[in-house]
Write a structure and sequence with these properties.
The protein has about 950 residues and is an alpha/beta fold. It is built from 38 helices and 19 strands. The protein folds into six domains: about 1-130 and about 165-250, Rossmann fold; about 270-450, Rossmann fold; about 455-510; about 540-645; about 650-840, no CATH class; about 845-959, no CATH class. The chain has a seven-stranded mixed sheet, with helices on both faces. A seven-stranded mixed sheet has the order 9-8-15-10-13-12-11, with helices on both faces. Strands 14-19-18 form a three-stranded antiparallel sheet. β18 and β19 (about 805) form a beta hairpin. One of its GO terms (cellular component) is membrane. Its main location: endoplasmic reticulum.
């Protein structure tokens, strides 16, 4: 392997020769009369002063695992070491066969470096396949006969399922059509075939594969795949074409090219096509599924907000017409990235094109130079400039990431007069929310809602057109039922995943997310298309080795990886474990189905849950890794791994015992450090109709608890002195409470424990009861922390530390006392909203109902009652009737139940039968309050006015 100068450049232009597969620089370019093409070019008088450089690499039949990615890396390093990139402003690549693929991959991977150096590019492609070659298929068979693997040929093979090559083709096309490089090119194609068994009469590179990128390809008469790269003398047709091509590049003459654009003189279809392609790629799920877009619903309030109105919804057109700095919030995998790409595409497609810039917070550091580089990377390939930017979208921003606020500040400062739209991924483990303080820039807050039934109908109809699953109504009913049973959000991703699962065994439903993913993988590896020349891999083998790979990612805290790293890691492990597995097939299947996606110059899992799923399989097989996750509560960093681990066989008893102990120890630590006495319950003084005396009693209950606690004196003083400036100590003291008292860590442990509990159907009931009790103790401690923050929340509307804190959304009152009361009364409801998605599934119903019936603590029992209202397991109506019967007619508990039932009736997705149950319980609660009877009858309910039952805010197709 080497790079060699034939002639150093004297005029900033260098021609680089790159040979093809099973060849070398000497063999590829040398005619039988010993004419060496690079030297022939060097002797041209009209080309005096140009540089001529050859690059050679290992590509024999026994090159084995030396892959195309390795060749590209070697090309980059040789060009750097020999100062080819530093000393030239124009590079002209002459590429034979696979050399063209190597160079195209180099350009796609190193585009930023080439842009930074302002290097012009031209490609002279000599029988170079864009879509692969049958010759490579032959090499694969030949290598197999020698019982070896030829990685280069596998990447070069001609097949419609060659995802690596097809993806390179697409990326190069996009780069060429919109590139600032102004890429120019010429393509030569062979005239006749080589005599190869099974390919007699076929050129090695077909015309449609070797003449794809540049207009007016030229067939070289009487040439085959080998001789086309070996001109005999100066009069050879291919040599004369090359000389003419080089002179055109030197003089700036126009050949087939793609022009660069600016907003003022652009071809909007080029930029628009780029935005369309990016959106379609983001929407792509499994390879056999259609691309589906459903208009999302944006609103000023979360879906679960009891005060929200239909008019709180914001039309997408308003956001596009007049963009303002906005934070759009949603849980992970809700579709924020697709929404970002959609907004950018729609803004550009408008009658008056508007450029919106996409930035990815996952890949950005809070430094001006990093931001400038990211902007350049986004705009330069499109020929656009920073001054053209009308709006910035910062995607994948999360309040749990280090320096997240600093990053947002830097982006806002960099685009001082440009609106910034932030796509915030809400972390359910954090009981605090982000409060950016950006020195004068105010953000509107919007929430991305889940799909309505009507939206799901659209998705099912479109899906059925491509992969018929069943009758539309039956499929919709099953998808919605499965989402309810598994407690999954109604997101496009979850809908598509369940539709994929339903393609086989329509009448069977997965019992948890782990089984759902396993069924998807079964379809991908055992039912969907696999390359015909490859052996179909065993799914259990795939899960086993991918488990090892994901263990490596987690231990090394690695997010991205190269294809070579993936293959080498799996090959090494398979060899050590005596497993016969074609690991490149595993990569191809994962990549083709968007489980692994390209990311900058490497790859990553599209969603992190794939990492946690495979890692959970590893825990099941490897005790050392299981100990690594469970010891020292490492699982608190990624609670999903516990969900999948316990979902493998639903009987991970030892794991539940460990989780119970960890949560108990962490909760004890929080309780000991905060020191608020057990049994503090201000809600026992609250009544249906609040009074000043009632509020004072509630405040006194909290104040007494705080004074008896171990909290800092500054916190205690804020309760005693109503004139005290509460904001002064809180920013520091609250941070100390959260960090030193392990509250956030306790919340993470609780999340993992809740997810494990809902997957543990076959674990001993007493173990499950113990874990549920510890989870409820966490609820109690978090409620106390919220009460600690009450004065600041009531005073200023938010309590923040290092950018994190609680925010008040909606109307909470005009003065301190009103806000104090309203916030306090919302705490039980918010505890459920924060934790229900982790804890509940329909299979949890019996355990929760058992705890509800036997829970002695009235506040914990009330929180459980709210959970039952939201999730409605089997027999929930009967248990709620008993609860309504047990509480006082004028109590806060009855009022809270009544209020939440009404909110659910207005906004929940539910069948008629469930709506009838909710309506009955609303009337029962209202009648109890008005009549004062322990259990009012039908005659008391009939006396109620009609406005007791609220109007439904969702039309029937949205139910």
């Amino acid at each position: 392997m080497k790079g060699q100068w034939i002639q150093q450049s004297e005029n900033d232009t260098t021609v680089i020769f790159v040979h093809g597969i099973l060849s070398s620089s000497e063999k590829c370019w040398t005619h039988e009369n010993n004419t060496y093409w690079p030297q022939l070019l060097n002797e041209e008088p009209d080309l005096d002063g140009i540089g001529i450089y050859t690059f050679s690499y290992a590509t024999g039949i026994f090159s084995k695992e030396y892959q195309l990615g390795d060749i590209v890396d070697a090309l980059k390093e040789h060009l750097r070491l020999d100062n080819v990139l530093e000393n030239n402003k124009q590079l002209i690549f002459v590429c034979h066969s696979m050399g063209g693929i190597v160079v195209r991959k180099f350009i796609v991977d190193r585009q930023l470096d080439l842009i930074d150096k302002a290097i012009k590019l031209a490609l002279f492609l000599v029988a170079s396949p864009s879509l692969g070659s049958q010759y490579a298929n032959w090499i694969v068979y030949l290598a197999t006969a020698f019982k070896i693997r030829h990685a280069q040929a596998e990447s070069l093979r001609f097949a419609r399922d060659n995802t690596w090559l097809n993806d390179l083709d697409k990326n190069f096309q996009n780069l060429k059509e919109g590139s600032l490089f102004d890429i120019k090119g010429k393509e030569l194609i062979e005239d006749r075939s080589l005599i190869l068994k099974n390919w007699i009469g076929k050129p090695i590179v077909e015309s449609f594969s070797g003449a794809k990128y540049f207009g007016e390809p030229v067939k070289i008469p009487d040439s085959d795949h080998s001789t086309i790269a070996k001109p005999s003398d100066r009069n050879a047709f291919q040599h004369r074409l090359l000389c003419k091509f080089i002179n055109e590049q030197k003089s700036g003459a126009v050949t087939t090219t793609t022009q660069s654009h600016t907003l003022g003189s652009t071809a909007p279809d080029t930029v628009g096509r780029h935005f369309n392609n990016r959106l379609n790629d983001a929407l792509s799920s499994f390879s056999s599924q259609p691309t589906i877009w459903v208009d999302p619903v944006l609103a000023k309030a979360p879906e679960h907000n009891s005060d929200m109105e239909t008019e709180d919804r914001i039309p997408m057109s308003d956001l596009l017409k007049e963009p303002k700095s906005t934070i759009i919030k949603a849980p992970p995998q809700f579709g924020l990235t697709c929404l970002a790409y959609y907004l950018i595409q729609q803004a550009w497609a408008a009658s008056k094109s508007s450029l919106w810039l996409y930035l990815d917070a996952k890949t950005l550091k809070p430094h001006v130079s990093e931001i400038e580089r990211a902007v350049k990377r986004e705009l330069n390939p499109l020929g656009l400039d920073t001054k053209d930017v009308a709006c910035v979208i910062l995607d994948s921003w999360s309040n749990t990431e280090q320096d997240s606020i600093k990053l947002l500040e830097k982006v806002c400062n960099h685009f001082k007069d440009v609106p910034v739209i932030v796509m915030q991924s809400l972390d359910g483990t954090s009981f605090v929310s982000q409060t950016p303080d950006l020195h004068g820039r105010e953000f509107n807050i919007l929430y991305l809602w889940s799909l309505s039934r009507g939206d799901i109908r659209k998705m099912v109809a479109r899906y059925n057109e491509v992969r018929n699953v069943g009758s539309e109504d039956a499929v919709i009913k099953k998808v919605i039922s499965d989402m309810d049973v598994l407690n999954l959000h109604r997101t496009p991703l979850n809908c598509l995943t369940l539709l994929k699962v339903s393609e086989v065994d329509f009448d069977e439903s997965p019992v948890n997310r782990a089984e759902m993913i396993k069924r998807v993988l079964f379809l991908l590896f055992n039912v969907d298309d696999i390359p015909t020349y490859k052996a179909r891999p065993d799914l259990k083998d795939c899960e086993y080795v991918l488990g090892y790979f994901c263990e490596t990612l987690l231990r090394e805290m690695r997010k991205s990886f190269t294809r070579e790293y993936f293959l080498e890691t799996l090959l090494r492990y398979c060899k050590a474990r005596f497993i016969d597995l074609e690991v490149h097939v595993v990569f191809d299947v994962l990549y083709a189905n968007n489980i692994i996606i390209a990311h900058n110059n490497s790859f990553r899992f599209k969603f992190t849950y794939w990492i946690y799923y495979f890692a959970a399989q590893r825990m099941f097989h490897d005790q050392a890794f299981a100990d690594f996750v469970l010891d020292h509560m490492n699982y608190a960093r990624f609670p999903e791994i516990i969900e999948f681990y316990t979902g493998v066989d639903r009987n991970r008893e030892a794991a539940l015992r460990r989780l119970t102990k960890d949560i108990r120890d962490t909760t004890d630590k929080v309780q000991e450090k905060i020191g608020i006495p057990d049994g503090m319950n201000p809600y026992r003084f609250a009544t249906w109709r609040p009074s000043t005396a009632m509020l004072e009693q509630m405040q006194k209950e909290i104040c007494d608890g705080v004074q008896d606690s171990n909290l800092p004196e500054t916190i205690k003083d804020s309760y005693l002195d109503r004139q005290y400036d509460k904001s002064r100590p809180y920013n520091q003291e609250v941070r100390d409470i959260i960090q030193a008292y392990s509250v956030a860590f306790m919340m993470q442990a609780m999340k993992a424990g809740a997810r494990a509990l809902r997957n543990s159907d076959y674990v001993d009931p007493d173990i499950k009861r113990d874990l549920l009790k510890e989870i409820m103790r966490c609820w109690e401690q978090v409620s106390k922390v919220l009460m600690i923050l009450l004065p600041l929340l009531a005073e200023r509307g938010h309590a923040a530390f290092d950018g994190q804190g609680f925010n008040l959304r909606g109307y909470f009152g005009d003065n301190f006392d009103e806000r104090f009361k309203t916030i306090l009364l919302e705490i039980p409801n918010n505890m459920v909203l924060w934790t229900q998605d982790d804890l509940f599934s329909q299979k949890m119903g019996p355990l929760l109902l058992d705890q509800f019936k036997n829970e002695p603590d009235e506040l914990k029992r009330h929180i459980l009652s709210i959970l039952l209202i939201y999730q409605r397991p089997r027999d929930w109506r009967e248990q709620m009737e008993r609860y309504i019967e047990s509480v006082s007619p004028n109590s806060f508990y009855l009022l809270d139940v009544y209020r939440i039932l009404r909110e659910q009736y207005r906004h929940c997705y539910a069948p008629r039968r469930v709506l009838s149950d909710i309506e009955h319980l609303i009337k029962l609660a209202a009648a109890k309050h008005t009549s004062g009877r322990k259990l009012p009858g039908q005659k008391h309910m009939k006396r109620l006015t009609k406005d007791v039952i609220p109007k439904r805010e969702i039309d029937q197709d949205g139910v």
